[in-house]
TrEMBL record:
Gene3D superfamilies: Alanine racemase (3.20.20.10), Lyase, Ornithine Decarboxylase, Chain A, domain 1 (2.40.37.10). This is ornithine decarboxylase. Residues 56-288 form the Orn/DAP/Arg decarboxylase 2 N-terminal domain. Keywords: Lyase, Polyamine biosynthesis, Pyridoxal phosphate. Its EC number is 4.1.1.17. GO terms for biological process: putrescine biosynthetic process from arginine, via ornithine.
Length: 411
């Protein structure tokens, strides 16, 4: 069964049943060797494409987080990769969770995670989702405008309101500045006052600097705004004790993560020295991006020649594209680097090459200009760091199936 159908099964809320259908986890020693996995599982005959997920990489990421950000409890952002195996693995390691919808709540709660480990971090929630959170006693949730405050007053007055404000990084792969978050200077105080007038509890504040943030200073700027909102909330009479610094942490660049962690720790020491304030974060990409390698197969090929008949470009068509496992390339095309599994790839002559996804849409092109040897139909291409914001968005457009996932773990 594909991990996607497992997910659908999970959210149709028969999670006990799902537990017995969990895919097999393959164990490896020392390091996960993709070439060996290809031979072991006969991936040469692969169709559709296949994700190889190294669960141990999630554990390594958690240890790195705990070492560099010991005060901050990570609440994994389920939207980033909602494969039940991944979510369960993190649940067993003891992380908290950021859920954005009723189905994400169902998935996480169904794995036995207690509601206190969850933040319902969506500031504009449908009433049916709020009612579900109330039934399940998931009390912490974000809010960023007065309509939502009234909605909570009507449907979930005993919940804890976390005021989300805007504070965008100057550089991020996926900026989040337009859609959510109130203005920290002009709107936050009004929301705090309104909540007080309606006898609602505001217990904290949150922000998201943008996914894939590469501006280290962005966090301090946001934490400074959070400090002001805390002071304002306390003056109004709210018992503020939760600060949620959102996501945005890099998935692949550990040196950048270390710099961000230093900046965050310094800022927290200065602005939130009181250890009674609980600090949480909502990392998504940080945990899962490096855990996945996507293995694709070339199923068709074309030679493009110039008028003189000389070879100009080689075109390859593979079994995953931007409507499938490369889904987020549509939003922020990053160049990818295909890995080859040929013995003599380094020494073979290279040609200008284009890689297309399988659908009929001409947008369905994998970004980048590639110099590759003359490959054959049936050859495999590997793409590393494919764990974040791919599979939850992937669709079977044109009838091309989304990849399955095989799970590996260090012995
Ligand atoms: C509210 C919220 N929290 C957390 C995340 C996860 O962000 P990242 O993957 O950058 O850590 C997102 C991503 O869009 C988000 O919208």
């Amino acid at each position: 069964m594909s991990s996607r159908s497992l997910y659908l099964k999970a959210v149709s809320c028969n999670l006990c049943e799902m537990a017995s259908g969990v895919p097999e986890i393959h164990f490896y020693e020392n390091e996960l060797n993709i070439r060996r996995a290809i031979e072991q599982f006969d991936l040469q005959n692969l169709d559709p494409a296949l994700n190889i997920c190294d669960l141990s990489s999630l554990e390594r990421k958690l240890r790195l987080w705990q070492k560099l950000l010991p005060r901050i409890k990570p609440h994994y952002a389920v939207k980033c990769n909602d494969d039940p195996v991944v979510v369960k693995f993190l649940a067993d390691l003891g992380t908290g969770f950021d859920c954005a919808s009723k189905n994400e709540l169902k998935l996480v709660l169904g794995l036995g995670v207690s509601p206190e480990r969850i933040i319902f971090a969506h500031p504009c929630r449908p009433v049916s989702h709020l009612k579900y959170a109330k039934e399940q006693m998931v009390v912490n949730g974000t809010v960023d405008n007065e309509y939502e405050v009234y909605k909570l007053h009507k449907h979930y007055p005993n919940s804890n309101l976390i005021v989300r404000f805007k504070s965008a990084a100057k550089e991020a792969l996926c900026p989040l500045r337009d859609k959510y978050g109130c203005d920290a200077e002009t709107d936050a105080a009004a929301l705090l006052l309104l909540a007080k007038a309606l006898d609602l509890k505001v217990t904290g504040t949150s922000f998201h600097v943008g996914s894939g943030c590469s501006e280290v200073e962005a966090y301090d700027r946001a934490i400074e705004k959070a400090e002001n909102i805390f002071k304002c909330g306390e003056l109004i009479g709210h018992d503020m004790d939760l600060m949620d610094i959102g996501g945005g942490f890099p998935g692949t660049d550990d040196a950048l993560f270390e710099n961000i962690a230093d900046a965050v720790n310094t800022s927290l020491q200065l602005r939130f020295p009181d250890e009674r304030v609980q600090i949480i974060a909502e990392p998504g990409r940080f945990f899962v991006e490096t855990a996945y390698t996507l293995i694709c197969k070339i199923h068709a090929k074309r030679e493009v020649r110039n008028k003189a008949g000389k070879l100009d470009t080689l075109m390859y068509f593979i079994n995953a594209g931007i409507f499938g496992a490369f889904a987020d390339y549509f939003y922020y095309p990053e160049e990818v680097n295909p890995e080859l599994y040929l013995e003599d790839a380094e020494t073979l002559p290279k040609f200008k090459s284009v890689i297309w996804g399988p659908s009929c849409d001409s947008l369905d092109k994998i970004s980048g200009e590639f110099l590759l040897p003359n490959l054959n139909v049936g050859d495999l291409l590997g793409f590393r760091n494919m764990g974040a914001y791919k599979m939850p968005i992937a669709s079977p457009f044109n009838g091309f199936e989304v990849p399955e996932t095989r799970f590996f773990r260090k012995k």
